[in-house]
Amino acid sequence: MNLLGTWLTDRMDLQLHLYQLKILIRVVKKKYRDFRLQGVLDSTLNSKMYETVRNRLTLEEATASVREGGMQGISMRDSDEDDDN
User: Fold this and answer.
1) 82 in the Ramachandran plot: left (φ > 0), alpha (ψ -120 to 50) or beta?
2) Cβ proximity of 48 and 2 under 8 Å
3) Under 8 Å CB-to-CB from 32, ≥6 apart: which residues?
4) Distance between CA atoms of residues 19 and 33, nearest Å
5) What pLDDT score was predicted for residue 78?
């Protein structure tokens, strides 16, 4: 997550391509779910870097939805709803 956060920070002034955004959302959601299933504590999972990455991807997703007209079923919001179940 730190590597991803650093990569996104280095590209703060650049928008992500739609393909990059979709892949990063899938990677972050899968990483979060897998570690949660393995019993990693929420306090560890919800680190400052995770929140930074999540916020950036959510912002990029909103921008892409307006610009491209939709994300075809891929969303950061899905991970929030799935985790509550």
Assistant:
1) alpha
2) no
3) 45, 50, 79, 83
4) 21
5) 56
Q: What is the pLDDT of residues 28-80, one digit of tens each?
A: 999 999 999 999 888 888 889 999 999 999 999 888 888 766 666 667 775 44
Per the structure, how many domains does the chain have? 1
Question: Cα torsion at 35, 41, 44, 48 (round to 10°)?
Answer: 90
User: Got the DSSP string for 42-82?
Assistant: HHHHT-HHHHHHHHHHHHHHHHHHHHHS--TT--HHHHHHH
pLDDT at 56 (0 to 100): 94
Residues 21 and 60: beta-carbon distance below 8 Å:
yes
What residue type is 51 in one-letter code?
E
